[in-house]
Amino acid sequence: MTPDQWIALVAGVVGGALRVGVPFLFVSLGECLTEKSGRINLGLEGVLVLSAMSAFGGAYLSGSPWVGVLAGAVAGGLLASLHGMLCSLPRVNDVATGIALMLLGTGLAFYFGKPLIQPQAPQIPAIELGKWSGSSAVRAALQVNMLLPVGLVLAVLLWWGFKRTRYGLLVRMAGDSANAARALGYSVGGIRLAATTLGGMIAGLGGASLTLFYPGSWNEGISSGQGLIAVALVIFARWSPLRCIGAAALFGGAGAIGPALQSVGISWGYHLFNTVPYVLTLLILVLTCRPGSVAQGSPGELSSNR
Hints:
ABC transporter involved in vitamin B12 uptake, BtuC, mainly alpha
C-alpha cells in the first residue's frame, strides 16, 4: 500500500473506534451500573434495538435528533425497569428474564419499526476532528458523534459516584452483600430497580447513536448483537466505568477493520474481518470465565447462586 493508503487505513480504524465504539460505550456503562447493584441484564440487546427504533421514530416525527435521543433513553429505561420489576419477584431468575425481555424488546421494535425502514430522520451533528488533513478520506473517518463526549463524561461520573458518593456506595453494597444492605435498613430491590432503570436509559443512548449517527438508519439487523457483547465488555473492563472506555474503543476499532480495509481497496477477507468483535468476545469469556473462579472486580452477588 502507498503511504496515503496507510494513513487512510489507520484513520479509518481510529475513526471507527470513535464512531463504532460509541454504542458499545453506552451499553457497557449501562450494564456496568446494573451489575454493580447485583443484577445482570441480558435483555440489553432488546433494550438497544427498541431504543434505536424509538430514537429514529422520535427524530423522524419531531424533526429533531435530540428529541429522538430522549425518546431512545426513555424507551431503554422503560424496558429495563420492566426487567427490574420482574426480577424483584420471588423465584425469578435474572438470566431467564433477561432473555425474555430481549425477545420482547426486539419484537416490539420490529413490529412498530416497519414503517420506519425507508424514511430518513434528522441526524446527530458530527464533531469534525479531521479538518487538519487534506485527505477527504481522513476527514470523513474522523467525524465524531456528539454523544461521545457525553459518554466519556458519564463514565467519569459513574466512576466518581461509585467511589465518592453515598448513592454509589449503596449500589455497591447491594451488589456485594444484599444481606448487609438489608441489615442497615435499605431496600435492595429498590436500589437494584433504580440501577437497572438508569442503566437501561444509558444503554438507550447507545441505541440512539446507532440510528441517528452511525449507520444512521433504522433496520431490523442494526445492533448486530452489541447488547449481548456488552456483557463481555463489562467483564473485560472488570466492572470499572473508566475501563469501559478502553474496552469500547477496542471493540469499536475491531469492528472498523473490515470497512477500513475496504476503503483503501482491500476487499479480500472483508467478511472475515467483520467477525473480529465476536472472536474477541469469545476469547474474553474463555479467558475470564473459568469454572470455580470468580473474575476480579465481580460484585459478590453475581457470583452467588441466585
